[in-house]
Design brief:
Number of helices: 8
Helix content: over 70%
Number of strands: 0
Radius of gyration: 19 Å
Number of domains: 1
Order of helices and strands: HHHHHHHH
Structural class: mainly alpha
Shape: globular
Distance between the termini: 29 Å
Largest sheet: none
Strand content: under 5%
């Protein structure tokens, strides 16, 4: 099928995939009572979006999601515990220093650190989906990516911010494809960065990425 109808068909297929991924993300988050299920479900979502970005469009979405969720359940909760702890520390520190006018410079520094932490998180889940690494190794790789590709980190934050604004304006989109489209955007961006890093590494070895 070619022409406009062919493009519409492809668009509809991708929309269905995004809706299903969003549904599975919510379903498996609830399966873990949200607290224990949210991060493993998010990691599973990125595993599925990576398969799609890698042109494996015939991947069985539910089975891939389920297997990734259970295989990464404990790692996901380890990551979640670290993210919660860091977020809580940054929030409490910010609230403390912003309450003291003489400490406003410190509060601004905490905001800057929080922004960089957001950049790290943007690449953290794509890294766990792309590389078979442990909790701390994934965090270290994400920090390295943000330091070596700051412009992509900024693009990730801006892109996610714009998508969130869009979903605030159109809440129906948030319910249907909010999480899955953000995951797809970050996966596409992450794959571009990872390929760039791998090309530079292989160039040092006298090879080329195909």
């Amino acid at each position: 099928m070619n022409g406009v109808m062919g493009k519409m068909n492809v668009l509809c297929e991708w929309l269905v995939r995004l809706v299903l991924i969003q549904f599975y993300w919510v379903l498996f988050s609830l399966l873990g009572l949200v607290v224990l299920g949210l991060v493993p479900s998010t990691m599973a979502m990125f595993s599925v979006t990576r398969q799609l970005v890698m042109k494996n469009e015939d991947v069985p979405l539910f089975r891939t999601f389920k297997e990734s969720f259970f295989s990464q359940f404990w790692k996901g909760n380890g990551v979640g515990a670290i993210l919660f702890l860091v977020s809580a520390i940054l929030y409490v520190d910010y609230r403390f220093f912003i309450a003291h006018e003489t400490m406003s410079a410190v509060a601004f520094l905490i905001l800057t650190i929080s922004f960089f932490a957001g950049m790290i998180v943007c690449f953290l889940f794509p890294i766990y989906a792309h590389y078979d690494v442990g909790v701390w190794e994934g965090i270290k790789k994400s920090v390295f990516v943000c330091l070596s590709h700051c412009h992509y980190g900024l693009l990730a934050m801006v892109g996610v911010g714009l998508l969130i604004v869009l979903y605030v304006m159109f809440s129906g989109l948030l319910i249907l494809i909010g999480g899955s489209t953000i995951a797809m955007f970050l996966t596409i961006l992450g794959q571009k960065v990872f390929k760039n890093i791998e090309q530079k590494y292989l160039a040092l070895q006298g090879k080329e990425v195909t």
